[in-house]
Amino acid sequence: MTTQEFTRLLTEKAELELQFEYAPGRYLPPAYHITEIKKVQTESVDCGGRPHQYQETVVQLWWDGKEQRGRPMSARKAGRIFELVEAQLPLVPETEVFFEYGYGELRTSVYRAKGIRQTEEQLIVQLEVPMPECKPKVEWEAAQGTITCGGNTGCC
Fold this sequence. Notes:
- A hairpin with a 3-residue loop joins strand 6 (106-118) and strand 7.
- A 7-stranded mixed beta sheet has the order 2-1-7-6-5-4-3, with helices on one face.
- By secondary structure, the protein is of the alpha/beta class.
- It has one domain (3-130).
- Helix 1 (3-12) crosses helix 2.
- The protein contains 3 helices and 7 strands; from the N terminus they run H-E-E-E-E-H-E-E-E-H.
- 22% of the residues lie in helices and 40% in strands.
- The protein has helices at 3-12, 75-88, 135-144; strands spanning 17-23, 26-27, 33-45, 51-62, 96-103, 106-118, 122-128.
């Protein structure tokens, strides 16, 4: 999901509560906060020696483990946080948006939005941890068909 798609959804569904499901049936506590929105620029070189550059938007979600609230924040409030950020740090609308969260035994991880579910009261962002990938292998498979790492992929 792009940053633009997410912020548009916050505007269109402003009256709904914004909830995050980090595993099937496991949700952030309603008292979570959006503590930071990051504009991340990555420069890397893959195992085949090819350079890559890309940007991402990372929304940091946080809960202090103490605060209790019966209802999650509204999509409207989340949208206002994005507006505050945009006023000082313009985000790139077409970048993928990720969500960073962890608490207690759940180690902090960066999640991707794999889907959105809506109920009468909530907009639920279904999260998943993206798996690492071998870029040369993925690019080779896209061009040639399925193979294993190595061979002519340019992979180490």
